[in-house]
Amino acid sequence: MRIMCIQHVDFETPGVIENWAARNTYPFHIIKPYQGDSIPDMSEFDFVISMGGPQSPRDASHLSYLQAEINFLKEVVEAQKHVMGFCLGAQLIGEALGGKTLRSPEKEVGVFSITLTKEGQSDPLFYDFPSSFPVIHWHNDMPGSTHSSVLLARSDGCPVQAYRYGPRVYGLQFHMEITKKGIEDLITHVPGDLKPSRFTQSREELMQNNYDAINQQMIALLDRLVRC
How much is the CA Rg of the chain, to the nearest whole Å? Predict the structure, then answer.
């Protein structure tokens, strides 16, 4: 399984995903289009992971690398590659398939529970997860629906937390890949995101959360997706 990871900012890394790939001896290549990296030929990989970032798909009109990624994601979905997007990455997948990114009713920053829909409870990735479980949030927007999207999860602050866009294509508005070190990096680089709100944890609360358990669930999802 040859994996290509698209990163959108230096401080939002693949986190535990890179460790998982190394343990499974999967070739893992990170590209950074915001730094001028070009996207490799589609024949060079089997699985595309699109990470989060402070950008919005609404910026694509003046950030050419985002529009190029949207076009690219459309092609890889059509080629039936494995695709998973987190936060911004999920929104870009939605845009690639005709959905429009929307503003979430609430900003969410911290660890809060999501609830699986009926479809989520029978989904090949989430079928034996608890009906409600904690994940990491750091967002203002949410991905748009398409003709093929199936809503898998929601939260009290955001009605769209996960879409299955196809048998091998998932968009997760939340995060499970971020390690505690990744949280420290986010706190350092985007402290303005911690402005108090209904679903925003303080710096102290963020550092007290159990990220190891969430990271282990991320590994379970990845193991299942590569078998799809």
Answer: 16
